[in-house]
Structures are given as structure tokens and as C-alpha cells.
Amino acid sequence: MPNQNAVIDDDSGMILFKSGSAAAPSIAFERAPTVGHFLRDDGSIGQSVGGAEILAFRVLQQFGIPLINISSGSIAANGAISGITALPVAYPHAYCYFPANALATSIAAGWYYCTFSTTSAGTAFLNTFDPTAGGVPSVPASPTAVTDGRGAYTGVTSSITCAQRAVGSGLLGLLGRLDAYVSTMCTNNANAKSTLIALGATTLLTLSSASLTGQRGRAYAQNAGAAAKQMVGTETMAIASFSYAVPVLATVDTAAATNLAVTSQKATATDNLILADYTLTFTPSPN
Predict the structure, then answer these.
(1) Domain residue spans of the chain
(2) Which DSSP state fits 104?
(3) pLDDT tens digits along 150-167
(4) Rounded CA separation 52/22 (Å)
(5) Phi-psi region of 239 (alpha: psi -120 to 50; beta: other; left: phi over 0)
(6) Which of 211, 267, 197 is nearest to 240 (CA)?
(7) 134 close to 50: Cβ distance less than 8 angstroms
(8) Which residues pair with 27 in a beta bridge?
(9) Paired residues of 242 in beta bridges
(10) With 0-12 CB in 10 A as exposed, 13-18 as middle and 19+ as buried, what is 8?
């Protein structure tokens, strides 16, 4: 009987399996065809037994390409970035958030791929990153050049989404847990700057970065025996300081569709606020 779940690629000779599902895994066993592996929608490998997925600890999101909530500056016609407040590092790869119509006559505000030759000069490209799609930033193989940069622009001071991941619809069960880790860097002055981690509409952690060069923070949310009850705790680290918050009770309904998100906001357009790296992990309920 031919195997309908796999084909051999003519060019590479590789065996390519269909994605399958928890109910019908594409890699299974003759004695137990509902025990096996399948490809989740997010590209990770799932395991199933008896037609149901077995949840396991896994990284839901992770990246180290900086997201720069960039200061006011100027974009030349060819995408050259100048006139910005100096960054802490000349980043070889980054995504910067520009206001609408900064990189072209008519273009949306958003995260655009950039490279930097110094801490105050770089090049912007038209390749975008949309965190609301649930993915992570990546380095484009062939960056698309800017050809219509519009000169001076003003840095964005409204709240900007940096990362977002769907974590509701029963994923956490009764005792599941999420751990989110962020590292930030910023312009060191007294102006207000904040990075938030939120589960749905509930803020888990606020990193306030006035008069700091950056911080690292962790927030966790663990369902406390019910889908709409969580214990939430946070830790914050900066140079020569550490703080720990006593866990509190939150009431986000994780049985419904909900997201965990990271946002960035600064009060002053001429400042930089950078999400340097981010990791979100999931530990399933044992029930």
C-alpha cells in the first residue's frame, strides 16, 4: 500500500511529509496510527496520542534582532538615516519604527529593516515586520532599497506593539504557565520611557527606563486552577539594582482568544527605546 503521507523530492532526494494534525499525525506507528508527530501552524512539531495533542514545554517566540523605537531624524532619498540621537550600538541588523510617509511619499507607519554603520548613521529599507501577525523579525535575504526618502521626520511617541502571540483559546488549561523575558536599551536621560508586557488587557510588567541605559525584566502568568485566574509575578534588573514583586492575582479569561504582547512607548520624540531581545515560553498544564 503506497504511503500517502510522504513524497520523495526529485531534486534533493529528501522525504517530505505532509503536515498532518493531532487527529491524524503524518509520522505515526503501524501498531498505533494515532500516536505520532505533526506540524503545527506556527512551524513547530507537535506530538499526539489517541488523536489529541500532548502539550510540552516550548518556546513560543524568541528573537535577538533589536526593535528600535527610533528618535527623530532624517531619511535621504536613498534611505540613508542621519540626524538621530546616538544609539548605544551600531546595530548590523535591526528594525526601526518610522512614522507614516517617512520612507516614501505614501507609506504606512511601521517597523522597517535597517542597518547601521555607526551609532548615528544607517540605512533604512522597505522590508517590514508586522508583530501583530504573531511572527518574529528576520534578516531579509535581499533588502528592498528606499528610493523616495522624505527627509526630516518626528519620532513616534504613541504606544507601539513590538511582539504579539496568541496564547488563549484554552492553551493554558487549568495550570499552564507563560514566562516572558525582555531586555531593553535606551537614551539615558530623565525623560519617560516604558516597555510593557501585557496578557490581554492586563499589564503584567512595566519597565520604566527614565535615567537608565536599559533594563531586563521577566513576567510570568500561571493559571491557578481555573482558566480565568492567574498568579502573576515580575522581576526587574538594572545596573546595580534588582526588584521582585510579590505575586498577585489576575483574572484574564485564557479560555477565550487572547494575546500576550510587548509594547514600547517614549514621551519624547528625540529619544531611542530599544527592545534588544525577547523570549516567550510556555509550560503546559499537567492535567
Answers:
(1) 6-54, 58-64+159-283, 72-153
(2) S
(3) 999 999 999 999 999 999
(4) 5
(5) beta
(6) 211
(7) no
(8) 37
(9) 237
(10) exposed
pLDDT over 90 (residue 251):
yes
Quick one: which H or E segment has residue 110?
A: strand 110-118
- First-residue to last-residue Cα distance in the chain: 38
When pLDDT is averaged across residues 93-109 and rounded to a whole number, the result is: 98
Select from 1.10.10, 2.60.40, 1.10.287, 2.60.120 the CATH code of 58-64+159-283. Answer: 2.60.120
Q: Which residue has the cell 503506497?
A: 2
* AA identity, residue 285: S
Q: How many residues does the chain have?
A: 287
Are the C-beta atoms of 215 and 237 separated by less than 8 Å?
A: yes
Taking alpha carbons only, the member of 160, 118, 126 closest to residue 264 is: 160
Q: What is the pLDDT of residue 1?
A: 41
Rounded to 5°, angle at Cα 217 from 213 and 223: 165
Q: What does the angle CA 190 – CA 131 – CA 126 come to, to the nearest 5 degrees?
A: 90
Cα angle: 57, vertex 137, 118; to 5 degrees: 130
Q: What is the 3-state secondary structure (H, E, C) of 178-232?
A: EEEEEEEEECCCCCCEEEEEEECCEEEEEEECCCCCEEEEEEEEEEEEECCEEEE
Model confidence pLDDT, tens digit, residues 28-60:
887 777 778 888 777 778 777 677 776 778 899
Residue indicated by cell numbers 505515526: 28
* Closest among 173, 171, 66 to 113, alpha carbons compared: 66
Residue 177 identity (one-letter amino acid): R
Rg (the chain; Cα; Å):
22
Distances (CA, A) of 160 to 22, 60, 165: 36, 21, 15
